[in-house]
Amino acid sequence: MNFLRSWIQSNREELRVFGQVMLFAATFVSTTLAGAEWTFGKSVFMPDFGWPEFALGLPFSLSFIGILTVHEFGHYFMARYHGIKSSLPYYIPLPPFPLSIGTMGAIIRLRQRVPSNIQNFDIGIAGPLAGFVLAIGILFYGFTHLPEPSYIYQIHPEYETYGENFAEQAYLPKEGVIDIVVGKNLLFMFFEKFVADPERMPNPHELMHYPLLFAGFLALVFTSLNLLPIGQLDGGHVLYGLLGYKRHKQIASFIFIAFLFYAGFGLLRPSDPIEDLVIYIPMYIFFLYICFQGLKLERRDAIMYAFIVFAVQFALAWIFPAVKGYSGWLLFAFMLGRFLGIDHPPCLIEVPLDPARRWLGWLALVIFIISFTPAPL
C-alpha cells in the first residue's frame, strides 16, 4: 500500500494528463454519437446503428470540439505567456441520452492566483476571441457550402411526398412527435441574409441536420454564455478590466437579475390551474432565493428580491400572456448564483487598461451581443 501511494505521488502529473486524455477521448466519442443522432435522427441505441453511422457524426464533433479546444488553449497559452501556472483543458463528456450534445464544454484550471487585472483580462478574453474566430470560419464554410434542398429527404424521406412546400404539412402538431426549432442570433441572421444562398437555406426546424451549422451555432451559444459580464466568467474578467471592481459589481448584479428574470418569465401564469400554482409558486420562490444568494445579500434581502421578481413576472404574465422567456436558462442562472458567484474578487495589482486592450474588451462585449441566442432550442 505504501509503495502504491508513493508511486501515485511520484507520477501524479502523468496520471493527471492521462485522465485529461481519457476525458478528451470520451468527449470525442460522445460528441460524435450526438452528432450522428442530430444529423440523421437515428438513435445510437437502434440495432442498425454501426460504424458507418458513427463516422457520419464526425463533421459535428470535429467542428464543435475544435472550437472548444481553440477556446481553452487561448486561455492556456495566454496564461503561460504571463507566467501563470495552468492545467491543460478538462473536457466534460455527456452520455448520449436524448437531445444530448455530447459535452458540457471544457475548462482549464489556473493553479495560482492571477495578481494583475491586466493578466486577468488577457487570460479571460483570449479564449472567446480565439474560439469565435474559428466558429466564424466554420459557419462561413457551412453557409457557403449548403447542400441542395433535396438533402433533407435523406433524413426525412416522408417530406418528399409533401413537395417543395413540405413545411406547410411537416410541422403541424402531431401526438408523440417532438418538434425542435433552432433559435437565431444576430450573427446567424447576418449569414442567412448576406452569405448563404437563400434557395438552399435550411428550415429552422431542420438546422440540426446540418452538422457544421449546428456545431457553429452551439459554439456561439457557449461563447455568449462565457462572455456574460458576470462574476468570473470570461465576460466578467473583461468587464472587471474595463470598469474595475465597483462598477463590475453593479453591472454584473443588474445583468444577473435581468437574466434570471428573463429565464423565469412566463414559467408560472395566473391562468395555470390553482392546484399547480399552490405547489409550484413556493418552490419557484425558494429557487429564486437560492439564486439571489449569489449576490451576497442578507437573507432578508434575498427573500425580498425573490418575492419581488416573482410578483413582477406573475403580473406581467397576466398583462402579456403571449410573451415568454426561456426557462432553459434557469439551470445556468442557478449555477451562477449558487456556485460561480456574481461579483469578481479584486486583483492585487490594479492598472488601467491601455487603449488596445480597451478596444478588445468592448469588441468582446459586442461579440456577446451578436452571439447571444435568447431561445437556443
Verbal overview:
This protein has 377 residues and is an all-alpha fold. It has a domain of 201 residues. Helix content is 60%, strand content 2%. It contains 14 helices and two strands. A two-stranded antiparallel sheet has the order 1-2. The longest helix has 31 residues. It is globular.
Highlighted features:
377 residues; two-stranded antiparallel sheet; 14 helices; 60% helix
Secondary-structure element sequence? Answer: HHHHEEHHHHHHHHHH
Total strands: the figure is 2
Instruction: Estimate the mean pLDDT confidence.
Output: 87
Query: Low-confidence stretches at least 5 residues in length (pLDDT < 50)?
Result: none
- Main β-sheet, spatial strand arrangement: 1-2
What spatial form do the alpha-carbon principal axes imply? globular
Number of contiguous helices: 14
